[in-house]
What does this fold into?
Amino acid sequence: MKATAKSAQMPLGIHLFALALILSSIAVLGTIILSIIDLIALHYDILTIVITIAFGTLFSVGLIIFLMRTRKLLLNKEENAVGCAKLIFVLGFIMAFFGRGFPFPISQTGLNIDWRPIGFSLIWLVYFSMSKAVKTTFPTNNRKLRRVDWIFFVCLAALLVFSLPLGLILGQTAVIHTPLPEH
It folds into this structure.
């Protein structure tokens, strides 16, 4: 049985996006590890470190699962693949405005918008919305998000939104222990 060109070809952009999802997962892990090292090096109190580890791990693991799930859906040409990819873009916008995705203590001057997720999200959103190859591979009349997709999205978005006030609270209440100089 001969496969048709429509069913056999996966657009190069989809493969690049799948690679970007893997690299994003690695970056998420790296960011949380470096932030924890910073907290320890800056001598923050144990409660702040534990909250950051717990919250950061919860968000990071959830995001990595959602990223890898979306990658699998795209490569298997599932009906909810494009919708999940678009939810990732929305998470990128939320991440840009609500912090790093975990409650790293934030000072009042540390509330800067991170433009990288916005750029990443805009580029891929335009690709997934306007590409003829994507429309051919994933027909628009057959795109449905599943309940599990919405649950992942709402939970991750809630963690991001909650991370900003928690980070501000930790930034105001964290105790920084200054080591005594050795004589």
